[in-house]
Amino acid sequence: MKKNLLIAFLNLGIGFISFGQFQVSMTNVGSQLTFKVKPIVNTNASFKVLEFFVSYPSTTPAFTYGTIVENTTNFPGMTDFTVQAEPEAGGFKYDHFIYTAPAPVTTPKDYLAGQEYEVFTVTLIGAGTVDLAVVHKEDFKPFYLALTNGQDADISTGNPATYFYPVTLVTGTGNNTVYSQVLLNVPLPVKFLSFYALKNGDDARLSWTVAEDADNKYFDIQRSTNGRDYATFTRVNALENGKNINTYETTDAVLSKHGIKDIYYRIKQVDKSGGAVYSVIRSLNIGRSTAISLFPNPARSTSKLVIDVPNATKAAIIVRDITGKQVQLMNVQFVKGINQKDINVSSLPAGEYNVTILSESLNQTIKLSKLN
Questions:
Q1: pLDDT at 10
Q2: End-to-end alpha carbon distance in the chain
Q3: Fewer CB atoms inside 10 A, N or C side of the chain?
């Protein structure tokens, strides 16, 4: 069942409660979207619920959303924004952005009339471009925007034609009237298909594969020694070979010079329009000597074994439980270089396992944790 589309604000006056009126806007810098609100009157407010819909043509190339980053400076305590796809209608797809119970009510804060306040940012990941719109329908079916305070009193502008800024477009008539704020030709950056980090002696060998590479400009390869703060240590330019899917590699040499146990990597991809998107984060244990990893680990259903082998070879992948009992066996053919093999652990009980790779030239074991 759809949740009501609400943004809740509580405005505290002296001896009485007054309610500010808020407008909503969506802007973009490259592929990064920013959602904002702007009060018409000075307001001391707390958010209880925020829901709205973004539409785009059904013919739009497939894309996804990156991590939603809430602005907790503007909205203290805000967390757990989600987005879900809704059914197509009239040649358009609709994505439903939701901040609602059991999400906590944010801490009250003063908001000044006419000033914009960023609610959150999110990066689009895909290929090509997309025309987006924040939309509201006169009868609230099937998409809408509404504003309420903590007592569920409506604090919208009272007129859907002014719900959005800087310009609200109005189309249709009667209950079929649609109000929207539109962004055209938002670029969709490259999509990461994979990213792996493997030990190679005292070096890290980084390999990643991307789709929709035609609009890519370069990759900044970033390193962290604490898992929080990242800095670029090298740049890899796009191949620009006309292919849709490309694989890239680079090396981070002499890991032992950092004097730490674990090291972390991520990739910042920048497209020709200036939009950027980040890969997942990979970590390496500097003390581990083998060029082998499992992603994810721990795993619930499938873990991908990634191994760098010196020569093509036939091998066996053996999974054993903590008693040494063999619970899974796969015979595989490895090519020279980095290989990837899926290990399906969905039917295994939760616990610890050893994954061993055996061939004429290989005898390596790595631990795997299975989650419920």
A1: 30
A2: 29
A3: N
Whether 210 and 191 have beta carbons less than 8 Å apart is answered as yes
CATH number of domain containing 96:
2.60.40
Q: Which domain holds residue 106?
A: 22-187
Q: Does residue 278 have a pLDDT over 50? A: yes
Bridge partners for 248 per DSSP? 208
Decide: 286 and 262 in contact? Cβ < 8 Å.
Answer: yes
Question: Which residues does residue 237 pair with via DSSP β-bridges, in sequence order?
Answer: 218
Residue 182 pLDDT > 70, yes or no?
yes
Coil vs helix vs strand at 261 = coil
**Phi, psi for 258 (deg, rounded to 5):** -80, -20
For tokens 């002696």, what's the residue?
201
Rounded to a whole number of angstroms, the CA Rg of the chain reads 25
Q: Give the pLDDT score at 279.
A: 83
Q: How many domains does the chain have?
A: 3
Domain finish residue from 232, 255, 285:
285
Helices (H) and strands (E) in the chain, counts: 0, 28
Residues 192-230 pLDDT 10s: 888 888 888 889 989 898 877 777 889 999 999 988 889
Which tokens hold the place of 62?
Answer: 């497939």
Mean pLDDT of 58-82: 87
On whether the CB atoms of residues 55 and 132 are closer than 8 A, the answer is yes
Residue 77 Ramachandran class (φ > 0 left, ψ -120 to 50 alpha, else beta):
left
d(CA 179, CA 329): 58
296 and 255, same structural domain?
no
- How confident is the model over 297-331, as pLDDT tens digits? 888 888 889 888 888 899 999 999 999 999 999 99
Q: Tell which of 187, 202, 223 closes a domain.
A: 187
Contact 324, 288 (CB under 8 A): no
